[in-house]
Amino acid sequence: MKKDIVQYISNADVCVGVIPEIGGTIVFLSKNNSENLIKSDPALWDLEKRPNVDENTNFVPYCGHTVWLGPQNEWWIHQDINQKRKQENADWPPDPYLYISEYSVVEKTASAIRLKGPHSPISGVTIEKEIAVNPDGSVFVQATVHNTGSQPCAWDVWHNTRFDGKCKMSVAALAENVTVVPVLSESSTEMPFETENGFFSYVPQKPPQNYAERSSKSYIYPTEPYVSIETKKFNVEIWFEMYDKKLTHPKQAMVEIYNHTEHGENADLLEVEYHSPYKTLNVGECMNAWEVWKIVERK
Q1: Reported pTM
Q2: What is the CATH classification number for the domain harbouring 194?
Q3: Among 139, 126, 163, which residue's Cα sits nearest to residue 37?
Q4: Among residues 170, 244, 246, 297, which is most buried (max CB within 10 A)?
Q5: What is the distance between the terminal CA atoms of the chain, rounded to a whole angstrom?
Q6: Which domain holds residue 150?
Q7: Distance of CA 199 to the CA centre of its chain
Q8: Residue 1 included in any domain
Q9: In a domain, 2, yes or no
């Protein structure tokens, strides 16, 4: 029988569900007993379906909220245990030790949980996560990256929260600080977007009949420290810390948004991503990055 492995924390009518055994992934978010506001597939919430974690593990789409490291183009170049991915300079999949390994529960209360992952021989780090539902119903999510390797390493902290691809998002940004990169092929066309009144938004649409999908990725330096996502009844606002654009790795951006749709329903995806400043960590040093999620009911 499938075991319910989701651990829930709650406060002020907001509930958050976390799976420690699968990367400490946040897989559930609700307010006032609503449906899940983030995208995650309960069919995968099963330890029997989790693959063994090693340097050859492929990606599993648990979605929800996870923590990666940036830049993506360096994911596999600092390790020697998978020579094929190193030689190919692979930018996929993400480090499985960080997003899919079992995290231990360091501390848990009714409204907060603290988790610690294993050391990754791929990235040279260990990630700790702190998740708390505050008395006002906001959700605090922090990731601390520790250099637990034998030599210095350089990364940024990458928060990635997934929603249904039909949700509309908006972020305050000047047009000159937004770069949209469409995913174009014989089967894929771009996602429409708009920049109006100082805000950038995708306009999610199904692909035309002669294409299988729509996809675009945007790289943004915002003017306000949050992204707003429209679900059916609520706006989920993801707040973060602003910093000087010069501190961002040149291959990434402070805010990145990926929007993807297909003709079916299950594959539609909106990824809301935040990158912290890019830093070099000496052995034993750490850095962290936080987000605060606010759930606002639409009138």
Answers
A1: 0.97
A2: 2.70.98.10
A3: 163
A4: 170
A5: 42
A6: 7-297
A7: 22
A8: no
A9: no
